[in-house]
Design a protein that fits this description.
The complex is a heterodimer of chains A (193) and B (122). Chain A has 5 helices and 5 strands; from the N terminus they run H-H-H-E-H-E-H-E-E-E. With 193 residues, chain A is an alpha/beta fold. Chain A has one domain: Rossmann fold (3-Layer(aba) Sandwich), CATH 3.40.50. Chain A is flat, with a radius of gyration of 25 Å. With 122 residues, chain B is mainly alpha-helical. Among the domains of chain B are: 32 residues; 31 residues, no CATH class. Helix content of chain B is 56%, strand content 2%. The longest helix of chain B is centred in the middle third of the chain and has 25 residues. The radius of gyration of chain B is 39 Å and the shape is rod-shaped. The mean pLDDT of chain B is 76. The chains are: A alpha/beta (193), B mainly alpha (122). Chains A and B meet through strand 1, helix 5 and strand 3 of A and strand 1 and helix 3 of B.
């Protein structure tokens, strides 16, 4: 009776182990395509293309020659007009990071983070010591605003589907309204269910 | 006294105009203040989406996905009918799907086009 009971327990444990969820760490640079939807690989490809294109385009050297300093950029809104939920922050952050690491472009904070920063500054006006208190009105004004859009085209019939994504980023001179750079990345996929 | 006041007012207006001109950049539109006031008033509202992704997605038609959705919907409908019948056994959820059944007999009885004895015995 006893060996049978042990065997039962062992079998049950084996069954539970076989049914449990299995997670394996993978390299983020080699994310496999599972559903065919937008994934990490797409985001990385867009980021690589945009970084290379933005930092080698003529607008940067032209600004340096004209003003003798590096341009300051603020990140604006990205509109996702595709058929999927896509968060642009993944590749936008890679681009922002490249601006800072290469020291070719200055970056100023925008959106909710800027609001938080100003709120902290306001708090310092009444709580921080006079010597450490940060003043209002000394922020760096941006020269350019970076805005973007994501679009997609879907062509599907029965079990076959092609999806084309087009990601565009635009850099516009805030004072003159002149668009100085448009980054473009197209990704096409063929999916068979 | 009157002359003195007139002179002072001219001086005030003149200095105001000079100050405005000195604030204006070269080649700047003299009516820039109209736009400035408009956007100064609404900037907080306009800057809420800054640094974010605005989701303006659409639903793309995919034949295979649509088929899967229809299948799932049929399953859910059947499940709902089963559940309803479990709690209300008298309720026949399929009666609407049998147009010539006894349940709908009266409809055909009053209809001038359907005076057929056949429908009475269903």
């Amino acid at each position: 009776m006893k060996p049978f009971f042990t065997l039962c327990i062992f079998s049950l444990l084996l069954l539970l182990a076989a049914c449990s969820r299995h997670v394996t760490r993978i390299d983020p640079a080699e994310t496999p395509d599972i559903s065919g939807n937008w994934n990490n690989t797409d985001s990385r490809l867009v980021a690589e293309e945009m970084i290379h294109d933005a930092l080698s385009a003529a607008w940067l050297s032209q600004f340096n020659e004209a003003k003798n300093r590096k341009p300051v950029v603020i990140v604006g809104m990205v509109t996702n007009q595709s058929h999927e939920h896509i968060t642009a922050e993944t590749f936008m952050k890679d681009l922002e990071r490249s601006f800072i690491t290469t020291s070719k472009v200055g970056l100023v904070q925008s959106g909710k983070k800027r609001e938080e920063m100003r709120a902290e500054k306001a708090d310092q006006q009444t709580n921080a010591s006079q010597s450490s208190m940060k003043k209002f009105g000394l922020e760096n004004g941006a020269d350019y605003i970076l805005q973007g859009s994501i679009n997609s085209i879907v062509d599907a019939h029965k079990r076959k589907k092609t999806v084309t994504y087009q990601v565009n980023l635009e850099l516009t001179n805030i004072e003159t309204n002149e668009v100085v750079w448009i980054g473009d990345k197209k990704l096409a996929k063929y999916i068979k269910n | 006294m009157k002359r003195c006041l007139l002179f002072l007012s001219f001086l005030g207006v003149g200095s105001f105009v000079m100050a405005q001109q000195s604030l204006q950049a070269e080649n700047q539109n003299p009516d820039y203040n109209t736009s400035r006031q408009k956007y100064m008033a609404s900037r907080d509202k306009l800057l809420t989406t800054m640094g974010t992704t605005v989701q303006d997605t659409y639903k793309a038609y995919d034949w295979y996905e649509a088929k899967q959705e229809r299948k799932q919907q049929r399953y859910l409908d059947r499940r709902e009918r089963r559940m309803y019948q479990k709690y209300y056994p008298q309720y026949d959820s399929y009666r609407y799907y049998r147009p010539y059944s006894n349940y709908n007999r009266n409809y055909y009885r009053n209809s001038p086009y359907r005076q057929n004895w056949y429908y009475w015995f269903w």
